[in-house]
Amino acid sequence: MIRTLRIVVLGLTVVLTGCVTSTVDEMVFNEPIEGIGDSSVVILGRRHASDYETEFDFIECIADHVVARDSSIEIIDEIEFINALYPWFEPRTAPLRPADIDRLVQQKPVAQRLTDLKLEYMIWVDGSTVQTNSAGSMTCGVGPGGAGCFGFGTWGNASDYEATIWDFTDKAEVGRLNASTSGQSYMPAVVVPIPIIAPVQGTACDGLGDQLLQFLSSEH
Amino acid sequence: MSDSMTSGPDRQTARRSGLARAGLLFCLVFVASCSTKEVIVVGNFPPPLMEPLPVTLGVWYEPDFLGHEFFDEAKGRAESSWIVKTGDAQVQMWSQLLNNMFTRITKMDGKPAPDQMNPIVDAVLIPRVDELQYAIPAHTNVKVYEIWMRYAFELVTTNGEPIAEWTMTAYGKTPTAFLQSDEAAVNLAAVVALRDAGAHFITSFQKVPAVAAWLEELQQQRAAVASR
């Protein structure tokens, strides 16, 4: 009985998931062959553009993806890091080039805090997920006999993220990863709306997470 | 069918009840469309990580600053009026920031003036919010909530003589989020704007020409006293 239920749930998950096209590029140098040891990594989103900002939950998703597959990698929580180094990683003040780190560490308290954190790599993720198109219409109503919807809706999403890896010790850029995904979601409704969602952002997260894992982990 | 089963007085009661419900619904719709959304900005502001400047600074918050609020009246029935109260959050953020940015901070007893008794300090900072603007998705069709502020600062002696005057802007935005109310999003945008104000102040304070000149003069005075 439980097995049948599992198969039904799995089947529904497969059927109700929209298709996603994904492209992942990578270019890395000086990979840490032995892993990063007891050093730590921070993954930060870029938020200085006026028309978009890299989502906090996307950064959390990448960090969770990496840690779930190699728990020896210590990733500092983004918000904790930004608060611990306030105001030097705010959208207005965040370093844009590895050379800017020199300017930062000239301040003793900042240098000391970074040493305490044993930071080895700083990974900047720039990009966002946007809705590219939408069509269709749906009408819902409530009556004495119950409620229901009728119609069809579809929308497209596209994600484009680039991760730049800075080696904190050498103050140099050592890698650039890119994940571009797109997909179309559908929602047919005959009484009950059935969402068939394309996991566009999730696929981009998995793509970047896998590439970062290969870079940071000695086991992958 | 139901009418035939209802007696005369019951029908009247039902009609009254229906009218009352319709009236209540109308009032709710009317009140909802013309309601005022109030945001009392609340947030946590981390202390700045920096070496304090060797200055004993006095700070005077004017009553307008302590109770700063922004009111925007609805342009039409479909819109809401907004009150954004930032006073408490302003004082919280600026007190935290200044306490860590300078070696010593003293709150003044009154606005610096020749006949005003005040603690002895190197200078007194008077911050003011000159302007606040906000934008919500209903205004712009962009899925972002924004707060923009312009501050005006006065640095004066304890007698009220001007040392420096300058303005500074701060900006905060937050994207729309699922299950997030307009009020929560405006609060978050205001907190981001206050953080930005702190970051901008720290990075620009010593670059204001009149402030830079005053700091140099202060350093020279101290060196002269030390060499005696």
Structure description:
The complex is a heterodimer of chains A (220) and B (228). Helix content of chain A is 30%, strand content 40%. Chain A is an alpha/beta fold and 220 residues long. In chain A, helix 2 (56-69) crosses helix 6. The model of chain A has no long low-confidence stretch (mean pLDDT 90). Chain B is an alpha/beta fold and 228 residues long. Chain B is built from 6 helices and 8 strands; from the N terminus they run αββαββαββαββαα. In chain B, the strands form 2 sheets. In chain B, strands 5-2-6-7-8 form a 5-stranded mixed β-sheet. Classes of the chains: A alpha/beta (220), B alpha/beta (228). The A-B interface holds A 51, 53, 55, 83-88, 90-93, 107-110, 113 and B 46-51, 142, 173, 175, 195-196, 198-200, 202-203.
Layout of strands and helices, then pairs:
The complex is a heterodimer of chains A (220) and B (228).
Chain A: H1 2-15, E1 20-28, E2 40-45, H2 56-69, E3 74-76, H3 78-84, H4 100-105, H5 108-116, E4 119-143, E5 146-167, E6 172-193, H6 200-216
Chain B: H1 8-33, E1 36-40, E2 53-59, H2 63-66, E3 69-72, E4 81-85, H3 87-101, E5 102-107, E6 123-135, H4 137-140, E7 144-156, E8 162-175, H5 182-204, H6 209-227
Parallel strand pairs in B: 1-4, 2-5, 2-6
Antiparallel strand pairs in B: 3-4, 6-7, 7-8
Helix pairs in contact in B: 3-5
Judging by the overall fold, what is the CATH architecture of chain B? Answer: 3-Layer(aba) Sandwich
Total of DSSP H or I helical runs spanning 4+ residues of chain B: 6
Radius of gyration of chain A: 21 Å
Q: Point out poorly predicted stretches of chain B.
A: 1-9, 29-33
Beta-strand percent range of chain B: 25-35%
Strand content of chain A: 35-45%
Main sheet overview of chain B: 5 strands, mixed
Radius of gyration of chain B: 26 Å
Q: Can you count the beta strands of chain A? A: 6
What count of structural domains of chain B?
1
| CATH architectural category of the domain at 27-128 and 159-177 and 199-216 in chain A | 3-Layer(aba) Sandwich
